[in-house]
Design a protein that fits this description.
- The protein is mainly α.
- It is 70% helix and 0% strand.
- The chain has 29 helices and no strands.
- It is elongated and about 95 Å long.
Length: 508
């Protein structure tokens, strides 16, 4: 009896695991999300090596089925520039969870960064079916359509994105759509709404100021550029634009002071050295001008404005072979600008290649006489016809010279009616001499009252020797110096850089 009692007392109760075998079976399955918090913590701290270590361990435990671990690993691969690898991982996430719009958005973004814009739009449209109120999808669709040159669809998607949620970036891209369409008025309206929504955004203020500067509305341009500098005194784009305005009005020393500030921020900016070169050109320091323009040309060899200015400076220095070289290069990049052909013809004339000079003048007249130029556009240039008329007159072709002279008068009248443009006194004097030589009268439509007595006196002396057909200078109208208001800038999506700050970064 005693032994039985002892045996009974020494028996231990059965464990909970043996009593509930189902609970033991449930604990054998790993928890897929147990380390997601740690992965997220390392990622937002940008400790990517530790993050990859935890991801590797998590995927080993879950046999590669943890969606979040794969998602973050794909984000890290994209930051490292391995776009194709990140695309494959995001596609795996989309297979594991096909109803998640975020997975499809990341697949589309990787396709976009690989330059597969058509495929990206298809995936974004699939994501839009899962979430119709996501402004990010609409915005990125609009950016893709811009690259596909489907501007109407891009505009619709960007408007829809603004309807869902207003963002500065969407306003910027919509404004660029209107600029690509050539509609400056609509672009200005969009940027004005953007500034009302975000009045302290210096990029919006600077862009709006540059648009006003392009239209010649200097008061509003100066106002918006000044506001941009108020919020960010080191904004080099606004400083460069303000310096360009001062340079346009002949304040070369003040402009150079502004450019010194910009040179500290962006010393390798091609527009900066272009503008500095043209300031020296305005101060008649031609060697310094060529040195700065050569540097700008080295930094941006395909910028036609820099090539134009180099040709202009070499023409002024009577280095006609060098001028021909740079003007020919500029025409290759900007073949629809009449002034370039005119300057090329001036160089050819001084190189005694009269036949090719006539061909260049003919092309310049054709481009400058098109409908878009005669509709009051600032590119309408009567000096093209004036120089051509001078060349024809010197060759003894008075009838053809008279036709070009009359065409010049039509353009002068159009410019006088459409703007308060003042013509250079030297150009007026040459035109008066030519008019007197062609016996079309001495009172030219663009003669300034202040210059009239002096010009008429010179014209009279020219008409006395008109029967001997004295040669007139053919390089009187060298053209207008080109300046750049801001640094060359591509749309953000054109750069193709996928720097993401977090998992939901737009990045477009």
């Amino acid at each position: 009896m005693a032994e039985e009692l002892i045996a009974t007392r020494t028996q231990f109760p059965a464990s909970a695991e043996s009593q509930n075998p189902q609970l033991k079976k449930a604990l054998e399955f790993p928890i897929l999300e147990k380390q997601n918090w740690l992965i997220h913590l390392h990622y937002i701290r940008q400790d990517y090596e530790a993050c990859k270590t935890v991801i590797k361990e998590q995927l080993r435990e879950t046999q590669g089925l943890c969606e979040y671990a794969i998602y973050v690993q794909a984000l890290i691969l994209r930051l490292e520039g391995k776009i194709q690898d990140s695309l494959e991982l995001f596609q795996m996430c989309a297979v594991l969870n096909p109803q998640c719009a975020d997975n499809l958005k990341q697949v589309a973004r990787s396709l976009f960064l690989l330059g597969k814009h058509k495929a990206a739009t298809e995936v974004y449209n699939e994501a839009a079916k899962l979430n119709q109120k996501d402004w990010e999808i609409c915005h990125n669709l609009g950016v893709c359509y811009i690259y596909l040159k489907e501007l109407n669809k891009a505009e619709d998607q960007l408007h829809h994105a603004l309807h869902l949620n207003r963002h500065d970036l969407t306003y910027i891209m919509l404004g660029k759509v209107h600029l690509l369409e050539g509609n400056l008025d609509k672009a200005i309206e969009i940027y004005k709404k953007a500034v009302e929504f975000s009045p302290e955004n210096t990029e919006l203020l600077t862009t709006l100021g540059l648009l006003y500067l392009q239209l010649g509305i200097y008061q509003k341009a100066f106002e918006h550029l000044g506001n941009a500098l108020t919020y960010d005194p080191t904004n080099y784009k606004a400083i460069l634009a303000a310096g360009s305005m001062m340079q346009t009005h002949g304040d070369f020393d003040v402009a150079l002071t502004k450019y010194r500030v910009v040179a500290c921020a962006v010393p390798e900016s091609p527009p900066l050295w272009n503008n500095i070169g043209m300031c020296f050109f305005g101060k008649k320091k031609y060697v310094a001008a060529i040195s700065c323009l050569k540097r700008a040309n080295y930094l941006a060899p395909f910028d036609w404005k820099i090539l134009y200015n180099l040709g202009l400076v070499h023409l002024t220095m009577q280095q006609y072979a060098s001028a021909f070289h740079f003007l020919s290069a500029a025409i290759n990049f900007q073949p629809k600008m009449g002034e370039l052909y005119m300057l090329l013809a001036v160089a050819l004339t001084n190189l005694e290649d009269t036949e090719n000079a006539k061909r260049a003048y003919t092309e310049a007249v054709r481009l400058d006489s098109s409908t878009e130029f005669l509709s009051g556009c600032h590119r309408c240039n009567p000096l093209v016809n004036l120089n051509y008329a001078v060349l024809l007159y010197n060759q003894g072709k008075k009838r053809e010279a008279l036709a070009q002279y009359q065409e010049m008068e039509k353009k002068v009248n159009l410019l006088k009616d459409s703007s308060s443009l003042e013509f250079d006194s030297e150009m007026v004097e040459v035109a008066q001499k030519l008019g007197a030589a062609l016996h079309v009268g001495e009172a030219l439509v663009w003669t300034k009252p202040a210059k009239e007595p002096k010009s008429q006196h010179r014209t009279t002396s020219t008409s006395k020797g008109a029967c001997f057909q004295q040669p007139l200078g053919s390089n009187q109208a060298l053209g207008q110096a080109m300046s750049s208001a801001s640094a060359f800038k591509k749309p953000p999506s054109e750069r193709g850089e996928g720097r993401e700050k977090d998992e939901r970064d737009i990045g477009m």
